[in-house]
Amino acid sequence: MHEWARRVTRDWPPFEVEERGGWRFGFAEGITKRANCALVMDPGADVSEVTAYYTGRGVRPCVQVWPGEEEVDRRLAGHGYAVVEPTLVLARDLGEPPEAPGTSSVSTAPGAAWSGLDLTRILGGVDAAYAAAGGGRGAAVLDGESVGVCAMFTEPGARGRGVATGILADLLRWSHDKGARRAYLCVVADNAPALRLYERAGFTRVSGYHNRVLG
């Protein structure tokens, strides 16, 4: 399994995991593709195993394809799996305490901004912190000296006001104070506003993947 695939799935974990037939199957009742996809364990794995597993669980079959898995990618295409949401992995160091406005409420428990969101079921399985401010929210998952930023969202009416910038900075500062010295995040490659936000915050590309989805 690709090293970044291993890290991403550890920080955004499925509810159930099964390894067989050269695949690692993740299932989270359909909550996000990232938690409901197969990861490659063996480059020669049979694609029909993926199709059978996910159709049997009532979820559209999906595979996360990383660099070095080109042969699997070709076989998936031959079975009718289409490319969906090419995604970048961005990272930065947190050697120095990041400057932060302190305008976000950051807590280890989700507040009102997270009420009713299925995402909290996934984040409840990891060491997560939740931030919210002015129509925006974001989360951070701590793992030793590394932190993964995820679930960033800003309400349409609050965009363009620096809300996401403040939330991201506050999450990075909170994480640094908790011992994190490296940060990463995943962002859909064609999300230009998000990419600008993260690049301004010092993140650069370190890897990437795309989903192959059946149908």
TrEMBL record:
InterPro entries: Acyl_CoA_acyltransferase (IPR016181), GNAT_dom (IPR000182), Rv0428c-like_C (IPR056935). One of its GO terms (molecular function) is acyltransferase activity, transferring groups other than amino-acyl groups. Residues 136-215 form the N-acetyltransferase domain. PROSITE patterns: GNAT. It holds the Pfam family Rv0428c_C. Coiled coil: none annotated. Keywords: Transferase. PANTHER family: N-ACETYLTRANSFERASE. This is GNAT family N-acetyltransferase.
